[in-house]
Structure prediction request, 270 residues.
Amino acid sequence: MSTWSLLPTVYVVVSVGILGLLIGSFLNVVVHRVPAGLSVVNPPSACPGCEHVIRARDNVPVVSWLLLRGRCRDCAQPIPVRYPLVEAGTGVAFALTAWRLGDDPVVLLASLVVVGAGIGLALIDLEHQRLPFAITRVMTLLVVLVVVAGSAAGVSDVEWSAVAVSVASWTGLYALLHYGSGGRAMGFGDVALAPVLGLVLGLVGWPASLVGLFAGFVLGAVVLVPLRVTGHLGRRAPVPHGPFMLAGAVLGLFVGVPLSQAYLSTMGIA
Prediction:
């Protein structure tokens, strides 16, 4: 492949990565305010120490934190390193999503919504052990609008049967775990999140959906079982499943199809 043929792809990846940096900056606000029931729009962001409103030049993702050396311009209070890490991490995640899924604009846009909102949900679930419905609702609405609009415009050929099976599988399994255990094995926030993840993975195909569905449980077991066995995590200590669920979905989006093909080939089925 020539350098010139790579330029459009590089341009899209870089552009989407920059968008991710901006989204990451907004996610910092979302993660702080939504669990507290505060508006993500007003009031403007301010330093918690001196309460000075953050200037526009001090709100450039990653760069401002580096130039300020991690401290408020007015009172020199330390700015947590989590902020630039979330911004940079979201930028990288968006760029990787564009590189891996950029061939289909509907899949790309829907996946970016899941990746962006998913980062915010994962961080909130880790800290507060809940998945706010306010975020899940907006996430679902945006994905549905992207899919319906893209399909109506003929931008993407959506296999609705695959999407329906994927949504039903994700929703059914998580609903069964929630209601079957009386809410002990799985929270309702996970149940509410399942349909939109199934929808986006269904756009890629049933192999991606199947890998993503079970990868969340496998990742959770890989991380949590050793912690419980060694006593670093109590047997009755509550553990948020959202981050594993979302990580599994992203794994399904990125490598679900090739991974399933490799497995079927190894088994002599394909």
